[in-house]
Amino acid sequence: WSSHKPVNNLEKVQLGYLKNMLGVRRQTSSQAVYSETGRFPLHVRQQFRIINYWIKLEKLPANNILKKCLNEQKEINTSGNNAWVAKIIHILNEHYPQRDHLRLANNELESIIKTFKSKIYDKCPDTILAEINDSTLQPKLRTYKLFKTDYRLEPYLLLNLSRKMYNKIARFRVSSHNLRIETGRHENPILPAAERLCLKCSMHEIEDEKHCLIVCPHNKLSREELLKVANDYIDNFEQLNNEDRFKTIMKSKEPELLKSLGKFLVNVDA
């Protein structure tokens, strides 16, 4: 737990819990799961706890046994042997390069602890959102990146919806659903994306999230309430093209619209 590197088995526990809670497949992008729930990899929290503990040790009186142990650690590290403080140096070098971290005055220690948490917790969302937007790294998130622009616990998870309803919303958002754009990749041989056409209508369009939510005639009756609520809460909704309609619905934080989206997805069994 005091490693300066991610502990994969621990990260798997957290991701397994989050994926189970969202009701998504095990293969679902970890970046999307973290972003959807507003959580951070345990490694990020681990780094903060290590640095916070080190600073507490540094501020102890010289005759304290823990402070003496810390000074011994510094001596061991200076002699070229592996020591716990090497982890401290490694972590701090990522955020405060070119400094002698083991010889800082108390006022400098206070400055570090005030800024370190914000440094790592600000950097992590930026890194994850950048990966989500990188189609080379995350090709499955081609739709998710159109509407996921902020790192937060999504409001639909706070609305006390039924498990089935919020699972449907989560699966639809992160492309862990039953539409052919996703299921086609599991066929043998893999069905090319351009051939994953909707089998519920005769439009000869790919059955992706936008087709299901906005276009497919098969879903017209189920869609009526959703579009009515969208028109009530989204300015100029009727004047938007299909792509913008899709994006504005998926970006919305309005509780009534989110409930209508959940009902629609349950009805069409997306």
Q: Largest sheet, described in full?
A: none
Shape: elongated
- What is the helix fraction of residues, given as a range? 55-70%
How far apart are the first and last residues' alpha carbons, in Å?
A: 40 Å
Mean pLDDT across all residues, rounded?
92
Number of DSSP helical runs: 13
Would you tell me the structural class of the helices and strands?
Answer: mainly alpha
The rounded Rg comes to 24 Å
Q: Which ranges are low-confidence, i.e. pLDDT below 50, for 5 or more consecutive residues?
A: none
What fraction of residues sit in β-strands?
under 5%
| Assembly level | single chain
Q: Would you report the number of β strands?
A: 0
Q: How do the helices and strands follow one another from N- to C-terminus?
A: HHHHHHHHHHHHH
